[in-house]
Write a structure and sequence with these properties.
It is globular and about 60 Å long. It is about 40% helix and about 20% strand. Helix 3 links the parallel strand 4 and strand 5. It is an alpha/beta fold. The strands form two sheets. The protein has a six-stranded parallel sheet with strand order 6-5-4-7-8-9, sandwiched between helices. It has a three-stranded antiparallel sheet with strand order 1-2-3.
Length: about 280
């Protein structure tokens, strides 16, 4: 009978599996990366210490399939240190209980009107923020589709048609993301632009190999090195100019002519008060 020997080994394997699952659980990942000092004075994250009494409130925003439990964990860590409000978007069926942050559901992987509405709510929260506010953005897999706000003059349908044309053309995911960043208000550092001058902390649960911050959810809170010229070059490369809506063509041409601002670049003032921490990787 080998049972006495097998059982301890099996128990050990079960314990290892449980530990592994806990290690990647979104809430636990946030709790490991974000903590408040014993005296309640400091928020410690990403190698930085932020003095909590300097802020009047905490705004929690974000998007991704795992972002609801991430938001709940942020609430738990902050506790009563600051008043909390916010809005986070998750995939349909992925909501989780939160005390203060509103959880909205939307479509993934194809953006829908609910996602645009949810992102607009996030933008409105951030546009009302100032230097006395602390913003924590929780990003996880699927964030690019769930965090969608078409640029002025472009409709959701225009974005969908353009994405479809890009996919059919054989463009790479990096090329598609370059175009997306220049047709959307929040991608490619756009969310950081909306949040400035508030203190912005981004907690990322990465689903991209190597954790390139500008690629995860199309980099809403980090600098973008691509330009309108790069986006136009993708259209040239795959002969897409006749296959996309007029609104998209007009925006790219306006960007090329310098009539509208490009995405924020490294060194831009919108990133002066930002901290980014990768809390886990899938």
């Amino acid at each position: 009978m080998t049972w006495p020997r097998v059982r301890p080994a099996r128990d050990k394997l079960d314990a290892l599996l449980a530990a592994a699952l806990e290690a990647v659980e979104p809430g636990q990942a946030v709790r490991r990366a974000l903590r408040v000092s014993a005296d309640g004075e400091w928020l410690i994250v990403g190698g930085r210490e932020l003095r909590l009494p300097d802020y009047r409130r905490l705004i929690v925003v974000g998007a991704g399939k795992a972002s609801a439990p991430m938001a709940a964990a942020v609430e738990d860590v902050i506790g009563d240190a600051l008043p909390i409000e916010g809005s986070v978007t998750v995939r349909y069926g992925h909501a989780a209980p939160t005390r203060y942050v509103r959880i909205r559901e939307a479509s993934h992987p194809v953006p829908d009107a609910a996602g645009v509405s949810a992102t607009r709510a996030i933008a409105e929260l951030l546009e009302g923020a100032d230097e006395r506010d602390l913003v924590i953005c929780v990003i996880s897999g699927g964030g690019s589709a769930l965090l969608t706000l078409p640029a002025d003059g472009i409709s959701l349908e225009d974005l969908q048609r353009t994405t479809d044309a890009l996919l059919r053309s054989g463009a790479t995911i990096n090329e598609i993301n370059v175009v997306r960043k220049h047709l959307d208000r929040v991608k490619g550092g756009g969310l950081a632009r909306l949040a400035a001058p508030a203190q912005l902390v981004t907690l990322v649960l990465s689903d991209v190999v190597g954790n390139p911050l500008d690629a995860i959810a199309s980099g809403p809170t980090v600098a973008d090195t691509s330009t309108f010229a790069d986006a136009a070059a993708v259209f040239d490369r795959y002969a897409l100019w006749d296959l996309v809506p007029t609104s998209v063509i007009e925006r790219l041409r306006a960007g090329l002519a310098g009539r509208i601002a490009d995405t924020p670049k490294p060194g831009d003032s919108v990133f002066e008060r930002t901290v980014v921490a990768v809390v886990g990787s899938n």
